[in-house]
């Protein structure tokens, strides 16, 4: 952006994301986010404005920093509607769309959108329950497989909650491999999974994708 006297005003880029998404331990930014911002700043044309959790969660949007461009993406606890209201108020250029990020709350909608645009997805089946432990006539479970609407999935298979904010993902192993289940979860210390040799049955307290 060029001003009078050939003085160039930097384009401001607002980074409106939760700190857990950009921080990595004691580092200010995680490696991927740090590389993105470093490359932008290397051009000399951009100024990065980092909003921070306090601003995002506590301050009214009227007092949020004003920027020319906005990087904002959803994660657990992120007030997406608030970010959308800010975008309407200040009209920055959106580096990534906000409205479409509501899809991320529901893995079923993510799969539907991928299929709509012809993007390959793995073979999958949906088990939808209105209430926990609801018995479903289209769902069958045997020792080494589950069957959904007549489609059989042999172990090993993956089970994901339809809730996009629930990161408790299970892998069930066949009896020929000793059975059991491995739970995948957000990294805690140096662990991101735990094996449960005694678990053979799939979950029934909610809705899942297989």
Automatic annotation (TrEMBL):
Pfam families per record: PPIP5K2_N
GO annotation, biological process: inositol metabolic process; inositol phosphate biosynthetic process
Catalytic reactions of this protein: 5-diphospho-1D-myo-inositol 1,2,3,4,6-pentakisphosphate + ATP + H(+) = 1,5-bis(diphospho)-1D-myo-inositol 2,3,4,6-tetrakisphosphate + ADP; 1D-myo-inositol hexakisphosphate + ATP = 1-diphospho-1D-myo-inositol 2,3,4,5,6-pentakisphosphate + ADP
GO molecular function, one term: 5-diphosphoinositol pentakisphosphate 1-kinase activity
Domain VIP1 N-terminal: start-end pairs: 11-106
Name of the protein this chain belongs to: VIP1 N-terminal domain-containing protein
């Amino acid at each position: 952006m060029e001003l009078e006297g050939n003085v160039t005003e930097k384009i401001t880029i607002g980074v409106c994301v939760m700190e857990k998404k950009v921080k990595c331990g004691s580092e200010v930014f995680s490696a991927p986010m740090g590389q993105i911002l470093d490359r932008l700043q290397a051009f000399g044309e951009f100024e990065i404005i980092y909003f921070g959790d306090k601003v995002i969660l506590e301050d009214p949007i009227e007092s949020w920093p004003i920027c020319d461009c906005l990087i904002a993406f959803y994660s657990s606890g992120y007030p997406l509607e608030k970010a959308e209201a800010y975008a309407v108020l200040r009209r920055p250029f959106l580096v990534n769309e906000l409205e479409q990020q509501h899809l991320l709350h529901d893995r079923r909608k993510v799969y539907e959108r991928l299929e709509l645009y012809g993007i390959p997805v793995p073979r999958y089946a949906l088990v939808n329950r209105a209430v926990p432990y609801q018995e479903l006539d289209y769902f069958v479970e045997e020792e080494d497989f589950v069957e959904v609407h007549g489609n059989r999935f042999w172990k090993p298979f993956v089970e994901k909650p339809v809730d996009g904010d629930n990161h408790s993902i299970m892998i069930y192993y066949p009896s020929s491999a000793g059975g059991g289940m491995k739970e995948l979860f957000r990294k805690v210390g140096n662990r991101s999974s735990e094996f449960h040799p005694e678990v053979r049955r799939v979950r029934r307290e909610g809705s899942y994708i297989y």
